[in-house]
Each structure stands twice: as structure tokens, then as C-alpha cells.
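This section describes the prediction task in plain terms. A model, or a person checking by hand, is given the sequence of a single protein chain and must write out its three-dimensional structure as a string of C-alpha cells. No templates, partner chains or ligands are provided. The sample shown here is typical of the held-out split.
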Amino acid sequence: MRKFTENDIEALFDIYKDEEINTYLPWFTLKSLKEAEMFFYEKYTQAYKLDKGYRYAICLKVDNKPIGYVNVSMSDNHDLGYGLRKEFWHKGIVTEASKAVLEQVKKDGLMYVTATHDVKNPRSGGVMKQLGMSYKYSYEEQWQPKDILVTFRMYQLNFDGQDDRVYKEYWDNSEVHFIEKDV
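The expected answer:
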């Protein structure tokens, strides 16, 4: 894993242009290399200016070319996000990369991370469970910019052993929230 660079615009485009990869992600697919370049400068270079900007490219060792990403937001939710080109799905790559990022954020003193997934995308929840995250609750949100109603499951991993700490902002902001059994 490493940071994205200006030389990765085409690889970024390959990741963010695929409809299937981006179905459950909070943006529309990119339509051109120019959009990918703008996305890089808006999302990645801004994060890299922070003291702790956790936005990593997942690369294969053979060519160091990005095939996906792992991010942790520095906002209050410390949201973990990931994406991977579909020809690399189901090989444990995102789980392995996410574990490394989680070790780093723990070492850097973050108390917890959260992650959410659309209930229609249970494989993402499987990754969260493999990372040691625990299901906390579900909630509905009119998801932007796609403007669709989504039911999310929220997972959390507390690094300090305080398992009763739950990030409640999604719960508090949603009129429809509940706890599912057997998740």
C-alpha cells in the first residue's frame, strides 16, 4: 500500500469508472480521465495535506499499480471505506489491506473506527466482521448524491476495549433506526 500520486490517474479512473464496483459507494462513476484527475486532487491531495490522511492505494507487488483503495475518514465517524477492481474480488486483498490501515490508525491514537454497508451488499459486512468490527445498528438514509433510500448497517471497532462505546450520529440523524438480530 502507498499513497496515490499524479501518475495514478489512469489507475484511479479504472477503479472509479466501473458501475458494478461503485454501486454501493457514495458517488457516481467517473466518466473521463479529466474527472479522475479532478477527483484525485479533490479527495486525495487534500487528505495528504493533513497530519494524518489515511487514503491508501492498494497495489500488487508485481507492478505497484493501484487496483483499489482503503480510506479512513478524519471526521468524527472515522469511517473506514474500501473499493477494489472486481477482477481482484474474493481474494482477501481488501481485508489484508484494511487490517494494515487499522493497525496504523490504532498506533496513531484513534479510539475507534466505524464502517457502514448497504444491506444489499452483505459481502462488505463480511469484510467488516473479518476485521473484528461489531455490528451496532441499522438506519435508513436518503443517500446523496444518488438520492436513493438506503438501509445501512453500522459496524464499529473500538481500539481501547471500551466495547460499550457506540458512535450514534447516524442513529440520531435517522428517523428510521433499529437493531437487527443475528447480523
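For orientation: The chain has five helices and seven strands.
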